[in-house]
């Protein structure tokens, strides 16, 4: 089986997606890139994550050709592939419809530095990309643009794109964005949140970058 390890990890994290409440039903998707093989393992479209096995995970090359797999790849494969084609520092992508962060996306709001864990995404704020139909090249291009040099963005009226050097980083970032989005929404309901400034966030990002480099 091609990319056995990556496919097993996709199954593991897809089940976590369902159990954690980061995305409802069969929505959301996960992929992992193997740079030596030049291929990705990506979750299949519209399949119950509790029933998923490694053979269901689809292997694609960077030209979007199916190399191995009996299922259809996630409809968002363009968005995943865009990250891997254009960013050699991205090794995994987690796309969710997590409730708090998606609420911000529905509002069309960016997520500012309400908590220092925003810096885990490599930027001082998480920007909200404009709306495009799901599964389209236009959405993929917008997501890549709004990532900037960071690892995450919101997708207007849609959800969240989190990425990272590996699946552990991408998953942790998706969790932290949901946590920070909840803080921001609750703080906005009570008053005006205190936002960390650019110099404070530069210190945070420097610390996180050093930490990741040591892993």
Brief digest:
By secondary structure, the chain is α+β, with helices and mostly antiparallel strands. The chain contains 6 helices and 8 strands; from the N terminus they run H-E-E-E-E-H-E-H-E-H-E-E-H-H.
Q: What does this protein look like?
A:
It is a single chain. The protein has 215 residues and is α+β, with helices and mostly antiparallel strands. It has a single domain (4-214), classed as Class II aldolase/adducin N-terminal domain (L-fuculose-1-phosphate Aldolase, 3-Layer(aba) Sandwich), CATH 3.40.225. The protein has helices at 4-20, 77-86, 99-107, 137-147, 167-190, 198-214; strands at 29-34, 39-42, 58-61, 66-68, 92-96, 128-129, 152-155, 159-164. The protein has an 8-stranded mixed sheet with strand order 4-3-2-1-5-8-7-6, sandwiched between helices. A hairpin with a 4-residue loop joins β1 and β2 (39-42). α2 crosses α4 (137-147) and α3 crosses α5. The protein is globular. The mean pLDDT is 96.
Broad structural category: alpha+beta
CATH architecture: 3-Layer(aba) Sandwich
CATH fold name: L-fuculose-1-phosphate Aldolase
Order of helices and strands: HEEEEHEHEHEEHH
What is the percent of helical residues? 40-55%
> Looking at the structure, what is the overall shape?
globular
On the 0 to 100 scale, the average pLDDT is 96
From the N-terminal CA to the C-terminal CA, the straight-line distance is 28 Å
Task: Supply the number of helical segments.
Answer: 6
- How large, in whole angstroms, is the Cα Rg? 17 Å
Low-confidence stretches: none
CATH class, named Alpha Beta
How many β-strands, per DSSP?
Answer: 8
Q: CATH superfamily assignment?
A: Class II aldolase/adducin N-terminal domain
Largest sheet: number of strands, sense, barrel closure: 8 strands, mixed
Beta strand %: 15-25%
Number of domains: 1
Strand order of the largest sheet: 4-3-2-1-5-8-7-6
């Amino acid at each position: 089986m091609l990319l056995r390890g990556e496919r097993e990890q996709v199954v593991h994290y897809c089940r976590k997606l369902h159990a954690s409440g980061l995305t409802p039903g069969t929505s959301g998707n996960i992929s992992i890139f193997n740079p030596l093989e030049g291929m990705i393992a990506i979750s299949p479209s519209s399949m119950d994550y509790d029933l998923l096995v490694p053979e269901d995970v689809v292997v694609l090359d960077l030209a979007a050709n199916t190399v191995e797999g009996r299922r259809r790849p996630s409809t968002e494969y363009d968005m995943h592939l865009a990250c891997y084609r254009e960013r050699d520092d991205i090794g995994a992508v987690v796309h969710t419809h997590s409730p708090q962060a998606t609420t911000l996306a529905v509002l069309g709001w960016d997520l500012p530095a309400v908590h220092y864990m925003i810096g885990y995404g490599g930027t001082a704020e998480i920007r909200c990309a404009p709306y495009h139909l799901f599964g389209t090249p236009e959405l993929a291009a917008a997501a890549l643009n709004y990532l900037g040099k960071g690892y995450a963005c919101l997708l207007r009226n849609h959800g969240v794109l989190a990425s990272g050097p590996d699946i552990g980083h991408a998953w942790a970032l998706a969790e932290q964005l949901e946590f920070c989005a909840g803080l921001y929404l609750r703080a906005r309901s009570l008053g005006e949140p205190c936002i960390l400034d650019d110099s404070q966030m530069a210190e945070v990002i420097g610390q996180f970058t050093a930490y990741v480099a040591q892993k």
